[in-house]
Design goal:
By secondary structure, the chain is an alpha/beta fold. It has eleven helices and 17 strands. The radius of gyration is 21 Å and the shape is globular. The N terminus and C terminus are likely disordered.
Length: 331
């Protein structure tokens, strides 16, 4: 193999190494929170909403003992918030699924694992996980042939071999490239990862939350980008920045036969169902309880960020109800 060949890789392989290989971005000590904010970091209201969702699932299952699996757990921030919000109302078996090592000081009730546990009865929740499942990029060349995009260590790109086989089938079904220069992220690995996660549940719900698009709103040139220290940067597979691209969520929703059907809703709608609306408190409260009014106003501001149009509120929630749960008032 020549030096030149060693320098060029498909984006899926390069991303895997840059994010999860030795010294990879997601294994760094500062964790993802050192580089970007998710809904979990934006407000404790998000964890409280997940806690209410967990309560709904427990009620449907007819039990006060319930499993909670956080896939792509970061440093355990969401689980910490949910356990605090639940308090003693439920007995929660909590699993953090993450490829980085267990952080110091994490609640001892949380089991830290690098793989999704099987036979779970409860809630599997994956917040901004699928966008970091590595995928290959494809681009239509000047003649219309769809080719893999290869990347060098410095982020430079070139077109490689034509896309064939299952990847070509996926593009034809979910994201056809019809114009020269059009690009797509080939989401097949994400579909497979999500199907495996949903299949791990014995009963309950599986929820994926992410930057996403569906067939009618595919971006013409893809969405691959990088984040470093809170700023969006060009994607370079050097381990120094996050590499992320939006999720073709409708493709993930189309699970293989035998797995449950899905619902897709915006985060704005999902959180509204769970009591997070962003409505301002009545001005009269400022007279009767000034401190309470200030707290309620701050909470409304945080809720508004979580549900904002053009921001976090536009995230998509992919929700699967897994057979075994009783009918309830949830999704």
């Amino acid at each position: 193999m020549t030096d030149e060949t060693c320098q060029w890789q498909g984006w899926r392989e390069a991303t895997e190494r840059a994010l999860y290989g030795p010294g990879g971005f997601y294994l760094r000590p500062e964790g993802p929170a050192g580089h970007f904010r998710t809904s979990v970091h934006a407000s404790p209201l998000f964890a409280a909403a997940v806690a209410r969702l967990l309560g709904e699932v427990a009620e449907e299952l007819g039990t006060a003992e319930v499993d909670l699996v956080d896939v792509g757990a970061g440093r355990g921030e969401l689980l910490t918030g949910v356990l605090a919000a639940v308090g003693s109302s439920l007995s929660v078996r909590a699993y953090a699924v993450e490829r980085a090592g267990r952080p110091d000081g994490l609640d001892p009730r949380v089991e830290w694992t690098d793989r999704v546990p099987r036979g779970v009865r409860g809630l599997l929740f994956a917040n901004e996980w699928l966008d970091n499942v590595p995928v290959d990029l494809a681009e239509a060349d000047a003649a219309g042939t769809v080719r893999y995009v290869e990347v060098g260590p410095d982020g430079s790109e070139r077109l490689g071999a034509p896309v064939t086989g299952p990847d070509a089938d996926w593009l034809a079904r979910w994201w056809p490239l019809r114009e020269p220069g059009a690009r797509a992220e080939i989401g097949r690995p994400r579909d497979e990862a999500w199907a495996a996660a949903v299949g791990s549940l014995a009963a309950g719900r599986a929820v994926a939350v992410d930057y996403a698009h569906v067939r009618d709103s595919r971006p013409p040139f893809g969405t691959l980008t990088g984040f470093r220290a809170g700023r969006e940067v060009p994607p370079v597979p050097d381990g120094g920045c996050d590499l992320t691209s939006h999720v073709a969520m409708d493709a993930c929703a189309a699970l293989p036969a035998g797995l449950p059907a899905a619902e897709l809703v915006t985060q704005r709608e999902a959180l509204r169902r769970l009591g997070v609306t962003g409505e301002r408190p009545p001005l009269s409260l400022a007279s009767t309880d000034p401190a309470g009014y200030v707290r309620a106003l701050a909470s409304a501001g945080e809720a508004a960020e979580l549900t904002a149009r053009g921001g976090l509120g536009d995230f998509l929630w992919l929700i699967h109800r897994v057979p075994g749960a009783r009918d309830g008032k949830g999704y």
